[in-house]
C-alpha cells in the first residue's frame, strides 16, 4: 500500500503541472509546489485570490463537498516517474472530490492534497454507477473540455453540464447595501445525447430541432403527462420513454 501511495504522489505531481490549465491561479500552483496547500473541509471550500478574512463563502464549486473513494478511470497514458515508467489506469481507493470551477480532481493522501486535471479522466464512478463522463467521449460543437454528469445513459441520453460563477462581495459601507459574501453559483444545464452527439438544450424549441420527426411523439408524451421541458426530472422521464420506445 505504501508503494501505491508513493507512486500516486509521483503520478499526481507529474500530471498536475504538465497540463497547461490557465484556470488554476498561479499562487495556488506556488503553494502546491512548496507543500503548504490546504483544502478546506468546510461545505464552502477555499477560494484563492479573495480576502476570506472579511468574507464568508456562500455556495460551493465542488460536485460534492465530501471526500469519496470514487473509481476514477483515466485515459491510457504512459508517464515517467522517479519510480520508473508507469501507466495511468484507474484509482479507486484514494479519497477525492471534484472541483467544477477549476476542472481538477483533488486527491487526499497522507493529509496532503494533490490535484490532477480532468482532461486526463475518462469517467468517474461511484461503485457501478457512472457519475461523470469526459465530454471527449461525445461529439459536440459546444462542449470541448470538462466533465458532464450522467443522468440517463442509452442511445438517448441526458447529462448536466455545470458552470460555476463566483461573484465578489459588493457591499458598500456608505450605502449599507450589497453583500459582504463571496457567492458561488453552480448551475447545471441540460445536455441531450443522440448516439454519440451531445447537444445543449434549454427548452422545447431546442429539443424539437434535435429530435426532428420524432419530436411529435416526444411532445405528446410530455403533454399527456403534464411535464415541463425546463425540469430535469421531467426531461429524464422523456428520455427514458424514448429509450423504452426504441427497444420495443
What does this structure look like?
Residues 1-18 form the signal peptide. With 248 residues, the protein is α+β, with helices and mostly antiparallel strands. It has one domain. The protein is built from five helices and twelve strands. It has helices at 2-18, 26-34, 204-211, 215-224, 232-247; strands at residues 57-58, 71-81, 84-91, 96-99, 104-109, 112-117, 121-126, 129-134, 147-152, 156-167, 182-194, 197-200. The strands form two sheets. Strands 1, 2, 3, 7, 8, 9, 10, 11 and 12 form a nine-stranded mixed β-sheet that branches. It has a three-stranded antiparallel β-sheet with strand order 4-5-6. A hairpin with a 2-residue loop joins β7 (121-126) and β8. The model is unreliable at 16-45 (pLDDT under 50).
Which secondary structure elements does this structure contain, and how are they paired or packed?
Blueprint (H helix, E strand, L loop, with lengths): L1 H17 L7 H9 L22 E2 L12 E11 L2 E8 L4 E4 L4 E6 L2 E6 L3 E6 L2 E6 L12 E6 L3 E12 L14 E13 L2 E4 L3 H8 L3 H10 L7 H16 L1
Parallel strand pairs: 1-11
Antiparallel strand pairs: 2-3, 2-7, 4-5, 5-6, 7-8, 8-9, 9-10, 10-11, 11-12
Key terms:
three-stranded antiparallel beta sheet, 24% helix, 248 residues, flat, 34% strand, 5 helices, 12 strands, alpha+beta, nine-stranded mixed beta sheet
Amino acid at each position: 500500500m505504501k508503494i501505491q501511495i508513493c507512486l500516486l504522489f509521483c503520478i499526481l505531481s507529474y500530471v498536475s503541472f504538465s497540463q497547461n490549465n490557465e484556470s488554476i491561479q498561479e499562487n495556488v500552483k506556488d503553494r502546491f509546489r512548496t507543500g503548504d496547500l490546504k483544502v478546506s473541509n468546510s461545505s464552502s471550500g477555499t477560494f484563492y485570490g479573495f480576502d476570506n478574512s472579511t468574507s464568508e463563502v456562500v455556495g460551493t464549486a465542488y460536485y460534492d463537498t465530501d471526500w469519496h473513494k470514487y473509481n476514477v478511470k483515466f485515459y491510457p497514458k504512459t508517464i515517467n516517474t522517479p519510480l520508473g515508467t508507469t501507466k495511468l489506469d484507474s484509482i479507486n481507493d484514494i479519497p477525492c472530490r471534484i472541483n467544477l470551477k477549476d476542472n481538477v480532481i483533488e486527491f487526499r493522501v497522507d493529509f496532503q492534497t494533490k490535484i490532477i486535471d480532468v482532461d486526463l479522466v475518462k469517467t468517474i464512478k461511484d461503485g457501478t454507477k457512472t457519475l461523470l463522463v469526459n465530454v471527449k467521449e461525445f461529439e459536440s460543437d459546444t462542449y470541448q473540455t470538462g466533465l458532464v454528469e450522467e443522468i440517463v445513459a442509452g442511445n438517448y441520453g441526458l447529462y448536466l453540464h455545470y458552470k460555476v460563477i463566483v461573484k465578489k462581495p459588493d457591499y458598500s459601507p456608505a450605502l449599507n447595501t450589497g453583500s459582504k459574501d463571496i457567492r458561488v453559483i453552480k448551475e447545471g444545464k441540460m445536455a441531450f445525447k443522440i448516439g454519440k452527439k451531445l447537444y445543449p438544450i434549454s427548452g422545447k424549441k431546442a429539443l424539437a430541432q434535435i429530435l426532428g420527426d420524432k419530436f411529435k411523439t416526444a411532445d405528446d408524451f410530455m403533454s399527456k403527462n403534464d411535464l415541463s421541458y425546463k425540469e430535469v426530472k421531467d426531461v429524464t422521464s422523456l428520455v427514458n420513454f424514448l429509450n423504452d420506445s426504441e427497444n420495443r
